[in-house]
Amino acid sequence: MGFLFSGVFWGIILILIGAAIIIRIVFNVNIPVLRIVFAVVLIYLGIRVLIGGPWTGSTKNSAVFQSSDMAITEDAREYNVIFGSSRIDATAKLTKENEKIEVNTIFGSSVLVISPDVPTIVKVGAAFSGVRMPDGNLVSFGDYTYKNKAFNKTAPYRVIKADVVFGSMTIMETAPREDSLESGPENKNSDTI
């Protein structure tokens, strides 16, 4: 709630009211500034309710009105991108059998990176959005399930539930960063005689 009582918020409101008065007098165009402000406050409060807890803009598993990079961890199972953008690294090795992760993108953009070596199933739910899958499919409405080549129903695997509403998500298969960093210097001079 601190933002609603900040000088920045009220400064913007006063500027908008002044601009609306000038536009109304000069151009004879009536802009309902108070209705728009009321709607923005309701949207802000709705986002706070969705996120829960204290809202500071970005945490290790949420990006709100910001851009951030996130990596999945054992202690967090839900990752949110709301009015922002994020790269979510889900290439880590499995920590437990059939672990479940939830990724939500609402009015934002995200890139979900999965490993081709970690058995993974991605269940996508899309509404008014664009979700580009590693197999080339594009999901705008409805549900889609993607299983990578390492997926085996009888072995442990990772389940990622990805919901995208009025946003975009790209799901990419890439090798984990740790492997590429470890093998990089060793193979750097492999062409020498």
Please give a structural write-up.
- With 193 residues, the protein is α/β, with parallel strands linked by helices.
- The chain folds into 2 domains: 2-51; 58-175, no CATH class.
- The chain is built from 3 helices and 13 strands.
- The chain has helices at 7-27, 33-51, 177-187, and strands at residues 58-59, 62-64, 67-71, 78-82, 85-90, 100-106, 109-114, 120-127, 130-132, 138-139, 142-147, 158-165, 168-173.
- The protein has a 7-stranded mixed beta sheet, with no helix packed on it.
- Strand 1 (58-59) and strand 2 (62-64) form a beta hairpin.
- The termini are far apart.
- The relative contact order is 0.13.
Q: How would you briefly describe this protein structure?
A:
By secondary structure, the protein is an alpha/beta fold.
Shape: elongated
**Based on the structure, what is the oligomeric state of the protein chains?**
single chain
Strand content: 25-35%
Query: Which sequence of strands runs across the widest sheet?
Result: 1-2-4-6-12-8-11
Which regions have little confidence, pLDDT < 50, spanning 5+ residues? 179-193
